[in-house]
TrEMBL record:
It comes from Glossina morsitans morsitans. The active site is at E259. Belongs to the aldehyde dehydrogenase family. Keywords: Oxidoreductase. Pfam families: Aldedh. Gene3D superfamilies: Aldehyde Dehydrogenase, Chain A, domain 1, Aldehyde Dehydrogenase, Chain A, domain 2. One of its GO terms (molecular function) is oxidoreductase activity, acting on the aldehyde or oxo group of donors, NAD or NADP as acceptor. This is 1-pyrroline-5-carboxylate dehydrogenase 1. Residues 21-482 form the Aldehyde dehydrogenase domain. InterPro entries: Ald_DH/histidinol_DH, Ald_DH_C, Ald_DH_CS_CYS, Ald_DH_CS_GLU, Ald_DH_N, Aldehyde_DH_dom.
Amino acid sequence: MAKNPTAEPKYTLLFINNEFVPSVSNKKFATVNPATNNVITYVAEGDKADVDKAVAAAKKAFQRNSPWRKMSPLQRTDLMIKLCELMARDKPTLASLETQDNGKPYTEACLDVDYSIDTLKYYAGWTDKFCGDTVPVGYDLVTITRKEPVGVVGQIIPWNYPLLMLAWKWGPALAVGCTIVLKPAEQTPLTALHMAALAKEAGFPAGVINVVTGFGPTAGAAISEHPDVQKVAFTGSVPVGRLVMEAAAKSNLKRVSLELGGKSPLVIFDDADVDFAVNVAHEALFSNHGQSCCAGSRTYVHEKIYDEFVSKAVAKAKSRTVGDPFDDKVLQGPQIDNDMFTQVLSYIDSGKEEGAKLQCGGKRVGEKGFFIEPTVFSDVTDNMRIAQEEIFGPVQSIFKFSTVEEIIERANNVKYGLAAGVITNDLNKAMQYAQSVDAGSVWINCYDAVLPQTPFGGYKNSGMGRELGKDGLENYLETKTITMKVFNQTSD
């Protein structure tokens, strides 16, 4: 597929009620290419006044006799499939905007477009398949339950997978008939605005989908606090997740689903093929520049194969190409911005100061952009900062372990519980670990196998609720119980 590395963003205004409009304040902010530090364009900066307008449009679109509410389920399916077709048509543009805005390699951005289409297609098939029950309650009563859309939903998505996180949020909400106010991350607003234009082209009624670009403390907070938003979905950091929950509680006790951070353990037993394990562990950590909530950021290797694994992991990291994300040979682009760049380098310094052995990397690449060398630490211990805190960058930490019981305890000894992995040929060990580890997803002899059909979410500080799969629908549904008395009539 032909690349378009200079695809111009067509849409830079807020999208409210099926129209692109400036913000009430007329403010704009820059979105920057992290590979070059150059401004791509300036985008409308929405705040509370704009969120109020978007929520009002979404509320009107959700009224009982609105065109959206009167649609049959299969009409919603048709709209979602049409949106997917338009995404496929505009795949080069969407991928290019994602690469410019986020810095991920163009080939990966193309895969993200494909996965986003798959996610929306999956949920397009659910529009007529969520249903209630008939409940046996007694001789003279009939009780049924109905599943109904919760109403106006606020969705706040992160910058690491901008298009994909949009699809994860839009898919179930549209399938069940909710209306949406979405705030993309301020670092990566461009694909969300392009998707808004495609939604209008697909034929979604006015007000069903609204996109407000802006900053978390203003636009994001306004969504979380809004009394007419009935549910808010947030993906991001733990501290901000707490703020979202607090705002939801203080406003209207709106529903909250959170997908937060992770410090996921990948355990490699001594019966594993070392070369295979090295490749799995490498991609588990370095994929998307390490900027993934479920990254395998704690690599535990059995003592019998530890030295061999470390040697090969270092060689693999050194071979990873870093640079221009539009270059087909490049596997790793820049970190998202200077804040994340500085944070990752500070964690690398911390690892060295606390006694971990820096095997390779650890420095900036080049003088322009936010590039960091693929970095590997060995001799990492569980009490170090790099072992406990989410780095969110290309830093692999390799630990040594001896027994199954030991590694289960150590794997669970963090505040997160998003994902985990294990590589072994021993099915009993694999299942013992999988059933004991505190994680929402556990992958055996693979990693990061996240599919539209599979529920995704975390334990402990990694959040609440699940996205994807059938479970993802529940975030957007209310259950109504209807009970009717049956009068027994006797003949005269």
